[in-house]
Each structure stands twice: as structure tokens, then as C-alpha cells.
Amino acid sequence: MVVGLFGGSFNPPHQGHALVAEIAIRRLGLDQLWWMVTPGNPLKNRNHLAPLAERIALSEAITTDPHIKVTAFEQAFGVSYTANTLARVKARNPNIHFIWIMGADSLQTFHRWQKWQEIARTFPIAVIDRPGATLSYLSSKMAKTFDFARIDEDDARVLWKKSAPAWTFIHGPRSALSSTAIRKAAE
């Protein structure tokens, strides 16, 4: 089984997130996508963070694809960092092939994540294009550090067969929706 892991604070979740998930499922040939709603993001201001239960309910409301499973297991693990979550997921599911899914906007700051290089060495990564971030796959620190491990997006369906580090950048339809913009408009 091939499973995409799509994590984020989803504060709030929106159709742009759903589009990233749908593109990942289709282009990577995923059997499932685990939409992982995180309790918090150490790199973001927690003062504007909606309650976890609310973000889970909103995520479930916009994800109609039966391949998508909304979860908040990171809270159950009691971990705060993606690297720790992924290590736990890998240990508990040795027979599943995982791909870490991220929007290109996250790729720009990926090098600021705790143990970001360890994350890149844990699972293959699929970076999905987002408005304003298309060129991040050329200029980001992660892209430069792991340039040797990049596969062409035409080969995205075999990404799960690659040993990490391996990654691809997937172009496609993009949504201009942004959680930050949605929060600001609601203020």
C-alpha cells in the first residue's frame, strides 16, 4: 500500500489544501492520503490557532475523497515535530510505503524545520506547486541540498519505490487560497 502523509496546522483548512491532496492522490497513485492535522506548529504563532477539534471537523467537511483519512494522531503520539512523527509512523507501519506531501510554499522554509534533513532521509517527498512558490524547487535550501535526489515529475508514480532521499516537484492547477489570508479576512 502507498500512503501520502499530508501534515499541517490547517488553520483553517480550505479548498487549496484539498486540491493539493487530490493532485497528490492522482499524480502519485496513492492508495490513501493521511491528512494529519497537527496540534500546533512550532514555527507559527499559536495565538491564532483554532482548537484542534474544530480544525479536524473543518478538514473532514472539505475532504470528500474516500482515499483521504483525516487524523490527528500526532497529538496522541505526544510529539511536536514532524521528524519525530514520521519516525513513529515508519516504526508502526513497516509494510506501508509512505510519501511525505508538502505544498511548495512549505518548501521555501523547510530548512527551518527541526531535523529537516532527517525528514528528507526518512520518506520520499512530493512537493505540490502553490501560487508564488513555483520556483522554490530551484532556489530552496532543501532543493539545493538534495538536488541529486530529485526525480522528474513524469516519474512521480514510482516515487514510492525510491529510497529516501528522493523527491519530486509536481506542477498542476493551483489555488490562491491561503489560511493566513482567510484568518486576516475574518478579523
Automatic annotation (TrEMBL):
What keywords are assigned to this protein?
Answer: ATP-binding, NAD, Nucleotide-binding, Nucleotidyltransferase, Pyridine nucleotide biosynthesis, Transferase
The annotated pathway is: Cofactor biosynthesis; NAD(+) biosynthesis; deamido-NAD(+) from nicotinate D-ribonucleotide: step 1/1
Q: What is its EC number?
A: 2.7.7.18
- Gene3D superfamilies xrefs: HUPs (3.40.50.620)
Q: What class of enzyme is it?
A: transferase
Q: Where does the secretion signal sit in this chain?
A: none
Task: Give the UniProt family note.
Answer: Belongs to the NadD family.
Name of the featured protein: Probable nicotinate-nucleotide adenylyltransferase
**Record gene name:** nadD
